[in-house]
Amino acid sequence: MNAPAQIDLDTRHNPTPEDLDIVVRDERFNRGTNPNRWWAGEPFGTAWHNALSATFPRGEAFFIESVKAHRDGADPKLAAEIRAFVKQEINHTREHVAFNKLAENHGYDIKKIDLRVKEMLELTKGRPEILNLAATMALEHYTAMMAHEFLANPKHFDKADPEVAAMWRWHSIEEVEHKGVAYDTWNHATRDWTDWKRWKVRSLMMLIVTGRFFKNRWEDSMNLLAQDGITGWKARWGLFKYLAWSPGVVRRIFPAWLAYFKPGFHPWDHDDRALIRKYEGEFEAALMPAE
Description:
Layout: E1 24-25, H1 43-68, H2 76-105, H3 111-122, H4 129-152, H5 162-177, H6 181-189, H7 195-227, H8 232-244, H9 249-259, H10 273-279, E2 287-288
Antiparallel strand pairs: 1-2
Helix pairs in contact: 1-2, 1-3, 1-4, 1-7, 2-5, 2-6, 4-5, 4-6, 4-7, 4-9, 5-10
């Protein structure tokens, strides 16, 4: 059944702030350092973040290519934001390669995580590029939600190695800053679609991405905890408490996740640039032109 034409399920309005600056902070971390194996101060946060980081080098390369594939015809503002987005993501990839080496130096085997990401990305080859952009848009919403939470809630890194924590804050600042780029690129690429089709595809893709994201990150974290000798109910209960109770990143991002399904949603419906200003002074020495 076709959706009633009069229902406005998506919007062509772009609420990305006109005065938004996407700034490239060319920062480097974790060179010549040797944080504790449990750099987060405990095993469960360490496992969760190590599992996330192991996906970033290949994942962010996928984000870059998915957005670049739809930049033709973008207005000058969006084109500039895409260029800055690409530069930020390239730097993120570089820093997570360095961070992942720390985990490997402590004896963690993260190759299985990298291999799974590689295999999943192989499946995207040959499918319509617009679906890759839809997946990127959903995953960028995840990174933005978690970035907001990492900056807003000091509990996430209050016991962490200072330099590792600084790396995650730096990454989080830039994820918040460019949280609307993939979405605005989607709006540009699907400008000839009906509102119903745009809402349906992005919503279904978010459900698919959510299922895979939590299934795979849970399995990856369990594998890393097993490498620490933490298995069975102790591993499952400990990770569940970390994610759902304290600091509770999954519980705390749920309202932002649900908002994604709202007709007319846009990532900048919530302007959280105050979090960027709170921390950006730490990285002023590394600023470089976005163009």
